[in-house]
Amino acid sequence: MKRLFVLVATMLLVSTAFAIDQGKRFDDPEMQARYEKLISEVRCLQCQNQSIKDSNVTLAADLRREIARMIEEGQTDEEIAEFLVVRYGEFALYSPRKTGKTLILWVVPFLLVLFGGYALMRVVKHRMSLPIGDDTDR
Amino acid sequence: MNRFVWPLIAVMALLVFLVMGLRHGDPRALPSPFIGKPAPEFELPTLRNPEVTIGTNKMAGDYALVNVWATWCVMCRAEHPFLLELAARKAIPIYGINWRDSRLAAMRWLDDLGNPYLASAYDEDGRVGIDWGVYGAPETFLLDPEGIVIYKHLGPLDAAIWQREFVSRMSGGGQAE
Amino acid sequence: MIPEIGHFALILALALAICQTVFPLVGAHRGDAAMMAVGRSAVIGQFLFVSVAFACLTYAFLTSDFSVLYVANHSQLALPKLYKVSAVWGAHEGSLLLWILLQAAWALAVARFSTGVPEAFSARVIGVLGFLSVGFLLFALLTSNPFERLMPAPGDGGDLNPLLQDPGLAIHPPLLYVGYVGFSVAFAFAIAAMISGNLDQKWAKWTRPWTTVAWMFLTLGIALGSWWAYYELGWGGWWFWDAVENASFMPWLIGTALIHSLAVTEKRGLFKSWTLLLAITAFSLSLLGTFLVRSGIIVSVHAFATDPTRGFFILTFLAVVVIGALMLYAWRAPSLDSDVGFGLLSRETFLLLNNVLLVVATALVLIGTLAPLVVEMMTGGKISIGPPWFNVAFLVPMLPLIILLGMGMHTAWRTQKADAWWRVLRIPAIVAIVLGVVIPLLIYGRVSILLVVGCGAAAWIVITSLILPIRSLRREKGTAGITRSALGMSIAHLGMGLFVIGVTVVSAFGVESDQALQPGESIEVAGFEFHMVSLSNVRGPNFSAIEAEIEIRDDGKLIDTIHPQKRQYLVQKSWMTEAGIRAGLDKDLFVALGDQLGQNAWSVRIQYKPLIRFIWLGALVMALGGLIAISDRRYRGSSRETEATA
C-alpha cells in the first residue's frame, strides 16, 4: 500500500500527462449530455486527430474543465463554440459549423447523389432503347 | 473533346492541388487567430513571488516576446540558450508564461539554467494558455509596442528563425543582429 | 554485414524488376516468346531478392542491431520478440519494404496462376507489375533505405511506438497490404487490355478472381484494424474517419464497385470502359492513400514520419502511373462501346445503381479527407472535418444502397418481370419492416426512427441474402443447386447485413458512463454491476502500469473479472490505456481507466456495447463470401476450360 502511495505521489508530482479533474461531471443529466456532446466535438489540438473526449493529454483535460465551467455558468453551446474558435480558430471544432462557407459541405452529399442519379438515368434510358438480346450474345 | 478525357483532367487537377499541398508546410501548425489583434489580457502571479503580478499591462511600450515554457518540455530546454543570448544582448524584453508546471521545479530550472525573463507568469491551471490559444510548448509571441500580436512561433526559437520571422517584423524597436 | 546484404539484395531486386518490366512488354509487342519468358524468370528472381532483403531486416531486429538506424528508432532490447518482428513493418521504411515484398509476391502469383491466359497478355500484366515494383524499389533505395546505418550504434533503441505493441498490429498491416497491393493486379490487367486493344468478356472473367482475392484481404485488413483500434486506442470507438483509415477504405469502396461491374462485363459485355476506369481508380486510390499517409500532408493519428521529399517522390510516381493509365484509357475507351441493352427493371440497372452509390460514397470520403487542406490553402483558415460530418455524409448514399442490395440480388439479367419480382420480395419486405419495429421493442424496449430503419434494413439484407441458399437446400433432386458464385454472393451480402446489425444496435443502444471509482466501490451501468476490487502497480517487459481489478456482476452473479491498465512505456514515456473487455457475441463490456482523480480514485469509462462483434463478424462473413465465390468452377482455369467456355 505504501509503495502504491509513493508511486502515485511521484506520478502526481512529475507527470503532467495526468490532469486532475474535479467535478466535471454534472448531476443534471441535461447538462451532462451537453457536456458529453460538446467534448466529443472539440478537437484535441495537442494530439493528432482526436477529440478532447478521447484524449489523455493536459490540454484536453484543461479544455474539458473550461467547457464544464462554461456550461455551469449558463453559456450556450454557440457561445462555448465561439470561445474556442476565438482562441484556436475553426480548426478546434471537429465538425464544421453549419454556417456560411461550411454549409456547403453539408449539402455536398445530397448534391452528389442527385448528380449520380441523373447520370444513371441517362445511361439506363440509353440502354433501354437498345436491343436486349438473348442468352447467346457474347 | 470526348468524355473519356475527363478522368484525366480531373486527376491532373487533383495532382496539382496535392503538389501545392506538399509545399504548404506542416498541417498541424495552427495560425494564431490573434495575429493583428491585441494580445489577450491577463494578470498572473509571478513565478518567484506570488505577491507580485505580471500581465499584459506591464508589457506595453516596447516590442516584447512572450514565451510559453515548462520544465517538462524538452524543446524548451533546447531553445533556452538562445533566449539567454537574446536577453544578454538586450535585444528585446522577454516575458515568460510558465505553463502547467510545478512552481518549485520551474524556479529550480531557472536557477540551474539561467533566467532570460524579465518576469515569468505562473499559469498553474492553464487558463491563460487557453486564452492565448496555446496548444504546445514552446510557443513564442511577438507583441508590438501597442500590445498587438504580430507573430506567433511554434516550437523552439533559434537565431535563424529570430532573424527571419521576428526581426523582419519589428521596425524601429528591437535590435537587429 | 547482414544489413549490407539486405541493401545489396534490394539493388539486385531493382535490376530484376527492370528486366521484369522491359522484356515482357517488348516481347509481347514483338511476339517474341523468349523475351516474354524472361519476364517470368525475372519475377521469381525479384521475389527471391526482396525476400532476402526482408529477411535481413527481420534479422537485424531480432538481433537488436542498433547500428541500423531504422532498428534503433523502432526497437529496444526489452521489446518482446513478437514485436521485434512486427516492428519490421511498424514505420515508414519497413512498411515500404513490406509493400515491395507483397508487390513481388502478387507478380509471382500471377506468373504462376494465369495458365488459362494468352502468353502475350500475361506478359503485359507482369510487365506492368514490374514497372510498379521498379517505382517502389527506387523510392526505397533513393529516399527510404531501411538499411541505413547509425554510427556509433547506441546501446539501446528508441522503442517501438507503444500503440503498435500488440498482436493485432502484427497481422493488420500485412493483411491490409495484401489487399492494397493486390489491386495492382486488376490495374495491370486493365493496362494490358488497353495496350493490346482487346477487352472482352473473357478479360472480365480472368480479372475477377484476382480482384476478389485482393478485396477479401482488404476487407479483413480493415476489419482487423477497426477491431484493434477498438480495444487498443479508441475508448471503445471502432471507426474514426481518420485520414489513414479513409486511405484504406476508399480503395475498398471502389474495389467493391469493381467486383460488381466486372460481373456485368463478364455476363453481358457491358460497361467495359467503366470497368476499366474502376480498375484504374482502385489502385490509384491505393497509391493516393500511400501518398497521403507518408507525405506529411494530412494530420492523422497514424500517419508515418512526415517528409515532403518522400511526398514529392510518391506524388511523381502516382502522377506517372495514373496519368499514363488514363491516357491509355482516353485512347482506347471510345472504341469499347457495345450496343446491347437492358430493361429498366434489370440486374444491370441495379448494379449500375450499386456503382453510382459506391462512387458517390468514395467521393465523399475523399472530399472529407482533403477538404481541410483545400480550405486551408485557399483561405488560410483551418477547418476540421471529423466523424460528425462523415457519419452523416456517408449514410446518404449508403442507406439507399443497403435497401437496393436486397432487391438487386433477385433481379434477372436483361429484363425482370415486375410481378414475379414482387412475388419474391413481397414477404421479405413485410417481414423486414415488422422486424424493424419489433426487434428494438422486444429486446431493448425502445424504438426510434433510426432504430427502425437500421434494424429493418439489416433484417432486409439478411433475409434477402438467405433466399437463394435456402431455396437451393430445399430443392428436389434433379435440379442444379446454387452455383458457388451465387452462394458466395449471398454469403457476402449476408455479411454486410450482419455488419449493419452491429452498427445499428451498438450506435443506438450502446451506453457509456464516465464515473469516479475507488477500490471497494461499485457502479451500475446498463444493468451490470462493476465493482473495483483493487488498484495495484504492475510491471511489464518494457512498461510499468497501474492496474485495476474490476469484477462484473449480473444480477449478483459474478460473470467476469477484468484488468484495465494505464501503462507508461519506459523509453518513450508515453501513456497507454489498456482496456479491460468482457467480450461476447451478444455484447461487450468495456472498461478503461481515465484520469487520476486523487490518491486512490480514478475516473473510469464503462461502456456497454451490444452486438458490437457483429461488425467484425460481418466483415469476416463478407470475406468468406468472396472466398466461396472464387472457388467457383469457372475460375479453376486450365487452358482447356477456357476454350470450352469461349
Briefly say what this structure is.
Chain A has 138 residues and is mainly alpha-helical.
Protein described:
The complex is a heterotrimer of chains A (138), B (177) and C (646). Chain A is mostly helical and 138 residues long. Chain A folds into two domains: 2-95, Cytochrome C biogenesis protein (Helicase, Ruva Protein, domain 3); 99-138. Helices cover 59% and strands 0% of the residues of chain A. Mean pLDDT of chain A is 75; it is low at 5-24. Chain B has 177 residues and is of the alpha/beta class. Chain B has one domain (36-169): Glutaredoxin (3-Layer(aba) Sandwich), CATH 3.40.30. Chain B contains five helices and seven strands; from the N terminus they run αβββαβαβαββα. Chain B has helices at residues 6-24, 74-88, 103-113, 127-131, 159-166; strands at 43-45, 53-55, 64-69, 94-99, 119-123, 139-143, 149-154. In chain B, the strands form two sheets. A five-stranded mixed sheet of chain B has the order 5-4-3-6-7. A two-stranded antiparallel ribbon of chain B has the order 1-2. With 646 residues, chain C is α+β, with helices and mostly antiparallel strands. Among the domains of chain C are: 1-165, no CATH class; 511-613, no CATH class. Chain C has helices at 2-30, 33-62, 69-74, 81-86, 92-113, 119-143, 167-196, 201-232, 243-268, 272-294, 308-332, 347-379, 387-408, 418-444, 449-474, 484-509, 613-630, 639-645, and strands at residues 511-517, 522-525, 528-539, 543-554, 557-562, 565-569, 575-578, 580-582, 587-596, 602-610. In chain C, strands 2, 3, 4, 5, 6 and 7 form a six-stranded antiparallel sheet that branches. In chain C, strands 1-10-9-8 form a four-stranded antiparallel sheet. In chain C, helix 9 (243-268) packs antiparallel against helix 10 and helix 14 crosses helix 15 (449-474). The radius of gyration of chain C is 26 Å and the shape is globular. The model of chain C is unreliable at 638-646 (pLDDT under 50). Chains in contact: A-B, A-C, B-C. At the A-C interface, helix 1 and helix 5 of A face helix 12, helix 13, strand 1 and strand 3 of C.
Number of domains of chain A: 2
Q: What is the number of E strands of chain B?
A: 7
What is the CATH architecture annotation of the largest domain in chain A?
Orthogonal Bundle
Rg from Cα of chain A: 26 Å
Please state roughly what percent of the residues of chain A sit in beta strands, choosing from under 5%, 5-15%, 15-25%, 25-35%, 35-45% or over 45%. under 5%
Uncertain stretches of chain B: 173-177
The main pleated sheet of chain B reads as: 5 strands, mixed
CATH 4th-level superfamily of chain B: Glutaredoxin
Number of domains of chain B: 1
